[in-house]
């Protein structure tokens, strides 16, 4: 969780104000700088993985729409991903009445 996600969770579930959470967070950062260095690195890696997955998804959709990707020859892992993407795309496509 990011700092913002943590603050929101603590506020919503435990009714602890942002100010108190921020003070404790800052104190913990001073006491454990090595932990927070690894923590912020892990958050950055998480962000980069999400961005990479988003870009791959966009590229996959474009390749499918342009006919540049042969689904029949895709490995099982790619097929599963494509099925997920296509299911999401279909779920987000408005239906037109048949009659």
TrEMBL record:
Pfam family, one: A_thal_3526
Organism: Camelina sativa
Name used for this protein in its record: Uncharacterized protein LOC104785255
PANTHER family linked to this entry: LOB DOMAIN-CONTAINING PROTEIN (PTHR31871:SF42), OS02G0137100 PROTEIN (PTHR31871)
NCBIfam families, A to Z: A_thal_3526
């Amino acid at each position: 969780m990011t700092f913002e996600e943590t603050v929101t969770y603590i506020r919503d579930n435990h009714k602890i104000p942002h100010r108190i959470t921020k003070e404790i967070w800052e104190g913990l950062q001073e006491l454990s700088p090595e932990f927070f260095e690894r923590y912020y690195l892990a958050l950055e890696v998480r962000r980069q993985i999400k961005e990479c997955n988003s870009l791959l998804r966009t590229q996959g959709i474009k390749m499918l729409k342009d006919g540049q990707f042969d689904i029949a020859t895709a490995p099982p892992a790619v097929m599963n991903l494509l099925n997920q993407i296509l299911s999401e795309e279909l779920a987000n496509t408005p239906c037109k009445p048949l009659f």
